[in-house]
Amino acid sequence: MLYKIVDRFPEDMIFKETGPLISLYQSTHRYFPDNKQDPIVFKNLLRDIENSLKQKVDSAFIDKIMKPLYEIRRDTDFWNNTLDGLAVMASENKCIVYKLRNPVKDFAVVSNSFHVKPLLQTFQSLENYQLLGLSRENFVLYQGNRYGFQEVEIDPDIPRTMTDVLGDQLSGSHLSHGTYAGAGVSAYHGHVDAKDEIDKDTEKYFRYVDSFVFENYSKQSKLPLILVSLKEHRAKLKSLSNNTYLLEEGINKSIDSLELDEIQKQASAIIETFDFDKMKILADSYAKAEADSLGSSDIAQVAKAAHEGRVKTILLEENKIIPGKICFSTGEIEPCDISSPDCGDILNDMADLVLLNRGDVFVLNSVKMPSTTGIAATYRYK
Asked: I need a labelling partner for 356 at 20 to 30 A (CA). Which of 4, 189, 229, 235 fits?
């Protein structure tokens, strides 16, 4: 297969590949008959890409970069297993695909940088979360938003159950016995010992799960993590967790006892409260930073700061496009005609620069934005 389906953002490819680069977004459908139109829409978007490429490169390059996209177009199994949206990022050397749980605007562009704003909304916006279902025997991880959630596929070779994780360290029957000298009587004293051993095993296993989820998922996604578990297990994990993204509020039930709709309903209520608090913190932080000359909504100033790696957090307005490019070697803005195939989006370049320098990027709708320019940034230092 010439393309790879991925579920993490940002992928290293976003920063390492050089142009021309293809970014394609499309809303898709899960069920028949609506999904029958999806390959046709995709084919039309490919035609737009081909026309754009013809203005820039020769036919040999076009054949090479388009080959994995043609494979996707012909893959019947792929189109029978889509979700609500699709994102394809392709370079001369690599092609990655995101299956999205939210609809996106149909869009295809060829540029010298990848168009990432819709992916930011999917993976880093305030409406997204991860959900950890935990028991003493196993765990499962989901990623969701207001449209629903899906299970995160974990490599089958990764230990998941308590037995797999602890192996030889797992206690046996939790029952011990001893023979008292002179009495010739074996006395079993397993009740207290069994509970102690169970508690030790539980703690070891929970520490493993906490570390695994943080290092492999939370650290990269930076998404809030909701814990679904029995009350005593939630308390145990929270007491030992080092995951800074684990929310205080969770769901005190076994995940196996809940219907998916009920999980979605409770998770959405938790995230709604979290989003409101997070939004207030972001707005207050920006207002204070701007007053202290540590923030700005001036596009040229923010572009320069992003180039210098000084942007800590940036807020971008949803669906707003500012035609132009940022010179990544100088931080200067280069205006352009939006009708030109070489013209990009300054806000998208801004997101690329901030992510490249390990800053945080959030995409908000216009009502929630604390500025009118389409951008609001707080700096690490002046």
From this structure: 4
Cis preceding linkage at 33, omega within 30:
yes
Q: What is the DSSP string of 158-190?
A: S--SHHHHHGGGS--SS--EEEETTTTEEEE-H
Full-model pTM: 0.70
Length of the chain, please? 382
Torsion, Cα 191 192 196 199, to 10 degrees, reads 60
Eight-state DSSP code of residue 342:
T
**DSSP 8-class letter at 217:** I
> Which CATH number is 352's domain given?
3.30.1330.30
Task: Examine the fold and report which residue of 115, 142, 157 is the final residue of a domain before the chain moves on.
Answer: 115
Question: Which structural domain range is residue 224 located in?
Answer: 129-175+201-275
Amino acid at 157: D
Q: What count of other Cβ atoms lies within 10 Å of the Cβ of residue 225? A: 22
In a domain, 189, yes or no: no
Q: Are strands 4-5 and 95-100 parallel, antiparallel or unpaired?
A: parallel
Mean pLDDT by 10 residues, the chain (382 residues): 88 85 96 94 96 92 97 96 95 94 90 88 78 96 84 92 89 49 46 77 96 94 93 96 96 92 92 86 92 96 95 93 89 83 84 91 88 96 83
DSSP 256: G
Instruction: Tell me, rounded to whole angstroms, the distance of Cα 201 from its chain centroid.
Output: 31
Number of domains in the chain: 3
